[in-house]
Amino acid sequence: MRLRLLPSLFLALTACSAASAGEEGVKLPAPVVDASPAAAGDASAVFAGGCFWGVQGVFQHVRGVKSVRSGYSGGDAAHANYDDVSDGDTGHAESVRVVYDPAQVSYGQLLQVFFSVAQDPTLLNRQGPDVGTQYRSAIFYANPDQKKVAEAYVAQLKAAHAFAAPIVTEVTPLKAFYPAEDYHQDYMRLNPDSMYIAVNDRPKVLALQRLYPERYTPAWANGR
Predict the structure, then answer these.
(1) d(CA 123, CA 95)
(2) pLDDT for res 137
(3) 170: pLDDT strictly greater than 70
(4) Full-model pTM
(5) Strands (E), the chain
(6) DSSP code of 9?
(7) Which residues are catalytic?
């Protein structure tokens, strides 16, 4: 996301990415394997799929989601900050933690949204104009049930040839989630006129609304 500090280069790259990033999304089959019925109470999931602004914005419009926080996963606490992560060598990925009500939306349904519209799972270490390992596609599972569901869904999508290119999304254990700086939270909601948001992220929310109207809500889930 540092590219937005260089206006001419940023505009050129975003224009390029808009033509090739598959921003229309793709409607995918529901997971055959889903999480076990949970006890009463909220659950959480952590995903990484490029710049966390857009991924946060998509999940903030999923019915049953209560809050979505941008942050960092994959590295250590000492380097869980934007300046270090942006160097691409900390092991961190820009991630989001989704807190949701399993009675309204399941873990498998969140995965369906993640693969359909939140990011392109066939891009290795990049999304749109953003390049580097910090922008990789990853599912950070918190327990064996999430691992089982995530791996089964990746296998299901591969078997169905849901994408023209191979899926490169990592399924990896969650070590920790570190919230990002305050200015990264609710970025799409607070900056709707940003060129970056308009080109790269707003189309994802529109795709969610179009492809999964039963799962979309116009309200914004809490981002802080």
Answers:
(1) 16
(2) 98
(3) yes
(4) 0.90
(5) 43-49, 65-73, 93-100, 126-127, 130-131, 137-141, 170-173, 177-179
(6) H
(7) 51
